[in-house]
Amino acid sequence: MDVTALIETVSRTKSQAGELTPQQIIDRLSHALTEFTTSARNQDFAAAYQPSGNYTRLLLNSPDDPYQVVLVFWAPGMGSPIHDHADTIGAVSALAGETKEIKYGVRTVGEAVELTEVSKFTIAPGRIAPILPENDQQLHLMVNEAPHWAATVHVYLTAIHRYRQYEAVPGGAFRTAETSLWFDEYAVGRTMPTGASS
Ligand SMILES: [Fe+2]
């Protein structure tokens, strides 16, 4: 599956989302991401790509679309803070290398925000981490612990513009910081190989 077909699948899934259960949406996104991330041509592209920074977000579809398909490049040792996804449904996989994912459940007690680690997963080509609005399926961190670069693919059924990061405060609780989602590079579907893929 090439990038154009992946974007079309996300677009179609979004337009049909009203008739689908969240799990059916995840199943469709996962199936498409499995085909996309196990394509040798797409993997070769990610391995050869020279990102502009140690953590680089490349938007693959149009910024005007109501959904997002994002390629993220992680230098060795790079990780994200714990963050939510503005309650969107989505899915994450990898084209190159692998990243560790830790999901968190969140509980607000008065002013304090408490997070509990609920699962660990290794995101790799053909291995999909779902994102759902439910507590314990929405917050996560990702980190590339390997000594080589990783490239991950993120599909968000609803485009994320603002989301929250969770920062540890003394005493074991967290505070939230609202943040804008930015992109370092834009491809609008042109950068990646298109046409029948291996
Ligand atoms: Fe994320």
The rough form would be described as globular
Q: Helices and strands, in N-to-C order?
A: HHHEEEEEEEEEEEE
User: How many domains make up the coordinates?
Assistant: 1
CATH class: Mainly Beta
Figure out the total of helices. 3
Supply Rg: 16 Å
For the largest beta-sheet, the strand count, sense and barrel status come to: 6 strands, mixed
Strand order of the largest sheet: 7-4-9-2-1-12
CATH domain topology: Jelly Rolls
Second rung of CATH, namely the architecture:
Sandwich
CATH superfamily: Jelly Rolls
SS content category: alpha+beta
What is the average per-residue confidence, as pLDDT, rounded to a whole number?
A: 94
Strand content: 35-45%
Number of strands: 12
User: What ranges have pLDDT less than 50 throughout 5 or more consecutive residues?
Assistant: none
Percent helix among the residues?
Answer: 10-25%
